[in-house]
Amino acid sequence: MNNYTYTSFNEEEWLNRVFPIAVLSIFCSVLGSNTVFYFLQCLNYPVNSFVRIILATVFVQFGLLVPLLLFFRFFDSGSIVQIFKEKLKFIKFSRQYFFTAVKIEFIIFIPLCFSALLIHKMLVYFGLNPVSPLMKLMENADIRGVIVVALISVFIAPLGEEIIFRRIFYSFSNKMMSRVPAVLTTSFLFAILHGGIVQIIPLTVFGCILQFLYIKYESLYPCIILHSFHNFVLMTIFIALFLK
């Protein structure tokens, strides 16, 4: 039984304050890893594939989370419990979300993979490079690098990305436009962040599915669970191929 007592807060005012921090988080995640990479090069530090993977995964994902966590800790009102439950919508947890995630993944996995494969073939046909930067790194990675990517993809990335895109970006966008344009805009930005042209359409579709889960349940839990499970399936397949 949930004995937590909910309090009221000004949603619009809070979104106006937290949205710039979410934008800053994205810049920190992208620019921070690149800055460290060039700094290591200036020091003549051997930047091998494993170090590059650390920069492209750990630095990027923690770059998303750290500015938000600092904002919540020092500049946001309310306790940590209130922030996560009421403001970030970590509410209404149900074990049914796990079954929902498996069912949705079963439906969408093959169509998303097929669309990515089709786009890959089209790009190759037109002489374009379809490989994302992260995939290039993983092609040359050892087992340590693959494990790091798998752990970050399954346990860390869904948390930060769902907070920023499904909760903050969508809610802020929905103040200025209707629901469908807000969903499409947020989902497209989510796809762009991942940096691979092959992934843009499949990830935009996946982002829309995650967003409608948030709208339906008014909770981040089902979004995070599906996102994590989807990444788990992808990484399981990649590791199986890698070990061969």
Write the layout of secondary structure elements.
Layout: H1 11-42, H2 49-74, H3 80-87, H4 96-125, H5 133-139, H6 143-176, H7 179-193, H8 200-217, H9 221-243
pLDDT averaged over residues: 90
Helix count, DSSP H or I runs of 4 or more residues? 9
Helix and strand composition category: mainly alpha
Low-confidence stretches: none
Which band does the percent of strand residues land in?
Answer: under 5%
Give the total of beta strands.
Answer: 0
Structure report:
- This protein has one domain (11-243).
- The protein is mainly alpha-helical and 244 residues long.
- It contains nine helices and no strands.
- It is globular.
- The chain has helices at residues 11-42, 49-74, 80-87, 96-125, 133-139, 143-176, 179-193, 200-217, 221-243.
